[in-house]
Amino acid sequence: MRPFTYSRAGSVEEAAKTAAGTQGARFIAGGTNLLDLMKLQIETPTHLIDVNHLGLDRIEPTAEGGLRIGAMVRNTDLAADATVRRDYAVLSRALLAGASGQLRNKATTGGNLLQRTRCPYFYDTRMPCNRRKPGSGCGALKGMSRSLAILGTSEACIAQHPSDMAVALRLLDAGVDTVSADGSRRTIPIADFHRLPGDTPEVENALRPGELITSVTLPKPLGGTHIYRKVRDRASYAFALVSVAAVFAKDGKARFAFGGIATKPWRSDAADASASSGAAAVAEAALNGARPTAHNAFKQQLTTRVLASIYRQKEA
Questions:
Q1: How far apart are CA 292 and CA 214, in angstroms?
Q2: Which residue from 221, 124, 120, 112 is spatially nearest to 167, judged by alpha carbons?
Q3: pTM of the complete model
């Protein structure tokens, strides 16, 4: 780990201003991903800005009937919150499917949105990786790619998005609230927050330099039946090969979001429109445009099977 300096921000505006004005600065919250990357010297910040004491740890209702979740709310607390469990159960279930209990006790809502890919070529500094080192190439394209993405990929990157929480937030049409160095605030629809890799896979989200996530806002509850199903190589503490978040309404409509198969949390209007036709139709629509490799083509059939199990669970 390379040397760095440290400061504790006194306000969200101060944190954003310090970040924008300090070359190589990074925010630190739970640090569950950042510290690992610093040990590997994949992340080499010159200065860490501690945002743990800014009062961003509350879960509160919004005037519009939704819910505002502070960026510093820990994953464990969010999953256990009574309102989340009652009105946004798919989010609670997605959180509990992620990481380990110890990690969830430290990991934050804002940090979870920003966690980096778990592509093995990103973490192996001996290998080329356009996401870690722009222009260096992609070792995954001709290497082992079993865990990697089949949707939203490019010639520069096929790294999968790792978060379970973000898949549920994508399903719920969350907004990401931020503050910038000049004190201005905005809300980024989560559909626009994570970027497709394209030719610049190193640019992973829509945040501007120094911009700090302050909260995540959920719209009014959807009602209906909430399901989150995750398939992985181990029973716990493993990232998704395929995950599906689903909400089924009483009128027969449904919406779906997918993890483990794409470079960002994935939704498809065509998949939602196919809900009444069953799992196979939803899978066919959701996987339209998929570009699997020889190693991860199995994810297409696995997605169909996960959807089939979700439909059976809905009827149970």
A1: 36
A2: 112
A3: 0.97
